[in-house]
Every structure is written in C-alpha cells, then in structure tokens.
Amino acid sequence: MSVRQSLLAILDQGACYGYQLRAEFDRRTGSTWPLNVGQIYNTLDRLERDGLVRRGEADELGHVYWHITEPGRVEVRTWLDEPVARTAGTRDALAIKLAVAATLPGVDAADLVRRQREVSARILEELRASHLLDAATDDAEDFARSLVQEAVVFQAEAEVRWLDHLAGLLAQHPTPAMGLSLSTQTPKRGRPVTASVA
Predict the structure, then answer these.
(1) Cα Rg for the chain, rounded, in angstroms?
(2) For tag attachment on the chain, is the N or C end more exposed, with fewer CB atoms within 10 Å?
(3) Are 8 and 72 in contact (CB under 8 A)?
C-alpha cells in the first residue's frame, strides 16, 4: 500500500490538514488499512522535504493545510499511470516460515501447512461473511470499500489455493529427504563478485 502516493493524490484534489487527510484516505479505502495521525504527519514531513507538498498557514482552529506542488502533481500522474508490478522479492512472512520449516530436520512441514490452511480457510470464510460485497452500488464510498474488500477476499482465496498446492508438493517428497543440515562451508564476507560484461 502506498500511503505516500495516496496522500498526494488526495492533496491533488485540494489542500487538507492531517486529520482531514486521514478521514479522506479512510473514505477511499473503506477503512481497511487505518492510518494513525502520526503516520500521516511523518509522511507529510517527508513529502515536504522532497518538495512534493508545502505547508500552509494555520487557520483560526489551528489546522495547518498542506498543498501539493507541481512536482507532487507529476508524481501523482506517474503513480496513477504506471501499473503496479508485484516484485518476486517481496517478503512474505508465511512463505518464508514454511520454506524454512520444510528444510528443518525433524519438523513436520505438512502438519504446519495443514494447520495454517485451517486458519486461512476460517479467515477466508469470515471475510466472505463480513464483506457482503455490493459492487453495483451507486455510492462512491461503498464502491471504493467493496473494491478493497474484494481484493482482500481474493488474496485470502489465493493463499488457501497456494497452501493446497504446497500440501501436494510436500506429499511428493519424504520429510527426511528435504531436511538441510547446517552447511560446513564458511560464508564469504562482503558482496558477491559480479561477472564482468565483455
């Protein structure tokens, strides 16, 4: 989730103060990923440092309004125009846990996968029950909320499918054969040598 670009996109609609930005973010994401005000102000400070927003004067109630700059508008347009590329290097805590567990001698990785699938399937059912999706709504906030909620449900479905796939892979490999003992090779310090291009 890109808080930075989301806040910039909201500011592109008009100047806002911190709590107002948080409320606008919540309206547009269905409060699925609530932000705390400290996170908002830290992000605004970084955006100001980078020349993408400027701090305005405080109003009679003490609200400091933030204004987007032209470089900020360019960043919003770039963010909206570029597709999101999910990189293969993204750290997924569950995938890392199960990959390590599958290589540890004496650990029943298939049992870990089975228990994780039970939890993931239960969460999926809870998500489906609590997010009665209505993408046909004419209300902009309801529509935005349903988009985010559908993404969460689809991700949970994908996790359950992946766990089923992993269970099948583990069934094909005997547990002791997949265990890795500690390597006896001494790791080299520093960065790996890269091949020179001729």
Answers:
(1) 23
(2) C
(3) yes
Angle 37-18-11 (CA atoms, 0-180°, nearest 5)? 125
**Core vs surface per residue 62-75: b (16+ CB within 10 A) or e:** eeebbebbeebeeb
pLDDT digits (tens, 9 = 90+) for 52-102: 999 999 999 999 999 999 999 999 999 998 887 777 666 778 888 888 888
Q: How far apart are CA 166 and CA 120, in angstroms?
A: 14
Helix-, strand-, coil-residue percentages of the chain, each rounded to 5: 60, 5, 35
Alpha-carbon separation of residue 85 from 56, 67, 82 (angstroms): 35, 29, 9
| Close Cβ partners of 115 (under 8 Å, ≥ 6 residues apart) | none
Residue 127 pLDDT: 86
Supply φ then ψ for residue 66, to 5 degrees: -105, 140
DSSP single-letter state for residue 14: S
Contacts for 21 with CB less than 8 Å, ≥ 6 apart? 7, 10, 11, 40, 44, 66
Write the CA distances from 133 to 45, 142, 154, integer angstroms.
36, 9, 12
